[in-house]
Design brief:
The protein is mostly helical. It has a domain of about 120 residues: Orthogonal Bundle (Farnesyl Diphosphate Synthase). Strands 1-2 form a two-stranded antiparallel ribbon. It has a two-stranded antiparallel sheet with strand order 3-4.
Amino acid sequence: MVTARFIPSIKAAFREALHDLKTARIGGLPSTALYKDIAGITTGKMLRPQLFLYLLEHNGTVPTKEHFRIAAGIELIHQFACIHDDIVDTCDGRRGAASLHCALERHYPGKGVGAALVAADGLFSHGLQIICATSCIRNKPAIIARLLEYASLTAVGQYQELVESTESERRLLDIYALKTACYTFVAPAMIAGELTGMPCRRKKKLERASLRAGKAYQLINDLKDIGCNNDTGMHCFNDFRTKKVNFIYLRLRKAASVRDREVLHRCWENGDTENYRRLLEKYDMYLTVRNTIDRLVESIPPWLRQFIG
C-alpha cells in the first residue's frame, strides 16, 4: 500500500495520544489506571488514518503533526468500535492477542465486560477530544458533525444487524454500508474532504465510492470468517457459531437445493461447522462471493481499491 510510509508516524501519534491519558486529571482524579489497562492495545492495519492522510495529500495538503494527531484520534475511535464488536460478537481474541474484555476479566473477575465498555467509551471521548483540540481544522462544527453523524449511522447498522432476521441480500448490504462503510471509509474520507475544501460534487462522488468500498471490505471479512485468509485473529466460523447472519449464509441458502437447505438449517441450529463447511464447498461459495466483491470493486476508483484488501 502506497500509504504504508505513514504508519510509523501514525503509531507514534497514537501512542502519544494514549499516553495523554496517563497524565490527564479528570475531575481532579488521575486516569493512570485507565491508561495502564489499555496501554497494550494492539493496532491493526490502521486503514482509517491511512485513508485520511492519503486523501489530504492527494488533495494538495502535506500532512503535518497536527494532521497525524487527527489520524490518531480516528484510530482511537476505531479501537472503541473494536472493543464493542468483540463484546457483541463474544470474540475472545483479536490480532493474536486476547480481546480487551477477556484480558480485563483476568485482572478484575466478574468485571471484564463492564470495564472494557467503560474503557472503550473513554477511547471514543479521547479521540473526539484530540480531533477537537487540533488547530488545523478551520470548520470544527462541520467536521465534528460529520464524525458524529457517521458514528450514529454505524450504531444504527450494528443494531439492525443484531436484531433483524433479514433474508434479503440487498438489505444486508445496506446494513453493511451503515455498520462498516460509514466509519471505515466514509468518515475518514469526508473529514479529509472538509479539511481540504473539497467541492460538494466531489465529496458526494467520494462518499458513494466509499460506501461501495465499505461493502466490499465487509464481504472480504465475511470470507475471512469462513477460513479464507483469516488474518483477523478471530475464530473461523465465528459468525456462524454465534448465529450472526452474513452475506455468505444468505447466498448459500439461496443457492442450495431444498434438501440442502434443510441440512443447512440443522447445521445452523446445532452449530455444526463441519457440515456447513461441506455445503460451502459444494456450492463454491468462496468463488461466488468473490465474484460479488469483484463486481463491487469494478465501480470503485483504482486509488481506493488499495484500502479494501
